């Protein structure tokens, strides 16, 4: 039960983080008649990433359709930020960047044509996460038992 609550809290935190990012997009583009864009620093701050992370992800091709100004500065659109908000879930869960690159390539190629390949990558990652979850649960049980057997009183 406590493990379920732990996972539920993490899901709520994750959903809350995603909603915060989407709310930020809505508020920051209110009253704007043209397409609002964001600087690398604004997006980095909003997503709790570093500027260098975003630059690296751009180099890897993980941020599709990222535009640049005439001076070469990155211009993030709401769609870019929404994409990154979702990709960040994979990043934060430890999915290898090569898998995220592959997913990005597959998504850009077309969802219907590549759905099976996308699902396979995500299913493999989910299996890895479940394995890590089982290992963590065993470690928690060990530590709880250790503390119960070795009281400090």
UniProtKB/TrEMBL annotation:
It comes from the Bacteria. The keyword Transcription applies. Keywords: DNA-binding, Repressor, Transcription, Transcription regulation. GO terms for molecular function: DNA binding; DNA-binding transcription factor activity. InterPro entries: DNA-bd_dom_put_sf, MerR-type_HTH_dom, MerR_fam. Pfam families: MerR_1. Residues 37-106 form the HTH merR-type domain. PROSITE patterns: HTH_MERR_2 (PS50937). This is HTH merR-type domain-containing protein.
């Amino acid at each position: 039960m406590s493990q379920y609550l732990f996972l539920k809290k993490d899901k709520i935190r994750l959903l809350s983080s995603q909603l915060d990012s989407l709310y930020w997009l809505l508020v920051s583009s209110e009253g704007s008649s043209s397409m609002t864009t964001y600087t690398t620093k604004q997006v980095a701050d909003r997503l709790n990433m570093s500027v260098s992370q975003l630059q690296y992800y751009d180099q890897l091709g993980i941020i599709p359709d990222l535009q640049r100004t005439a001076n070469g500065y990155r211009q993030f659109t709401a769609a870019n930020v929404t994409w990154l908000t979702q990709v960040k879930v994979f990043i934060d869960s430890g999915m290898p960047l090569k898998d995220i690159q592959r997913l990005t390539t597959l998504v850009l190629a077309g969802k219907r044509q590549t759905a099976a390949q996308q699902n396979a990558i995500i299913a493999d990652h989910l299996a890895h996460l479940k394995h890590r979850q089982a290992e963590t649960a065993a470690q928690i049980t060990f530590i709880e038992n250790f503390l119960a057997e070795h009281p400090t009183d």
